[in-house]
Design a protein that fits this description.
The protein has 244 residues and is of the alpha/beta class. The protein has one domain: Rossmann fold (3-Layer(aba) Sandwich), CATH 3.40.50.150. Helix content is 40%, strand content 15%. It has a seven-stranded mixed sheet, with helices on both faces. Strands 1-2 form a two-stranded antiparallel sheet. The longest helix is centred in the N-terminal third of the chain and has 16 residues.
Length: 244
Amino acid sequence: MSKSSAHPANAPALTYAMQRDPELAALRGALLALAVKYRYSYNFTWYGRPIIQLPEDIVMLQELVLSVKPELIIETGIAHGGSLVLSASMLELLGRGNVVGIDIEIRPHNAAALAAHPLSRRITTIEGSSTDPQVVERVRALAAGKSPVMVILDSNHTHAHVLNELRLYAPLVTRDSYLVVFDTVIEQLPAGSFPDRPWDKGNNPATAVRQFLSETDRFAVDTELEARMLLTAAPGGWLRCVKD
């Protein structure tokens, strides 16, 4: 178990055995492929906003936030704002911190809903590309002097875009905090699972994470955290910052 994660009740040996179980692995792959087909992650909300995440990922995110106690959480990709509200609600429980959400397009009805939300005081939104130099500079200014800082990447899922995001936002993550990269699961799904999107097997967040980890020793995959999860959209994407 990583230093910053909550301690699980299950024995580590049993947890790892579950992860290595070949029958479970086959079932997991088939279930995830079907879940994507039926847009399973669209079935859930958090505090009134659609969150578009798998339930286990929601549980793990709240564990990390309550454990790390970040002063700032940076999220790329807003959609309906559910993930921002999740982060804001955890920060509210902690009595500290803010979340910054970035999206190339924030639709008016989503912007209005977030502005009217009871936790809006903990939420800042920025409309623009997460890799636009002006946007990056604004986020860096918001992160200046903040600690711990956590980053969650969940916007455009192409290799090039995610790798650029990793290089731009990883320096803001503080030691023992997390850089979470969602939708690495695309690499494990059948080719063509997203026919209306520019990403696919071989061109997705997982391939970007592999290249990024070959370029830096500041981050490592939290394998103990991931072993506790049966289904996640971010396999290999739970990255713990291990160096200043």
